[in-house]
Amino acid sequence: MHRIELSRQARKVYLKLPETVRKNIHEKLTRLAESPYDHHDVKKLKGTSHCYRLRVGDWRILYHIHNEALIIEVITIGHRKEVYR
Fold it and tell me: Which CATH class is domain 3-79?
């Protein structure tokens, strides 16, 4: 099982989210830690080697997977209209 680590920016956004959204994101991240490559809501980002995005409703979670250390590093969390900018 992988360990989830939130960047400083991701942690700030996460704590400001409404409770229902935060609960949904927490559930998805828990499932992601158990099996990082077995989700239909995950896509690899083009032009990167280990960067992926996880879809949670209208929210997106961008993250790196470090397999050798069993860590999933969450880079940012944002609304789908703004996260890719």
Answer: alpha beta
Q: What is the rounded CA–CA span in Å between residue 64 and residue 50?
A: 5
d(CA 56, CA 64): 17
Closest by Cα among 19, 1, 34, 21 to 61: 21
Q: What is the pLDDT of residue 49?
A: 80
Q: What is the mean pLDDT of residues 63-71?
A: 93
| CA distances to 50, 51, 60, 77 from 47, in Å | 10, 9, 18, 19
Residue 50: band (very low, low, confident or very high) from pLDDT cuts 50, 70, 90: confident
**φ, ψ at 4 (rounded to 5°):** -95, 130
- Which residue type, as a one-letter code, is found at position 67? N
Could you state, in order of their start, the residue ranges of all structural domains in the chain?
Answer: 3-79
Q: Model's pTM, two decimal places? A: 0.90
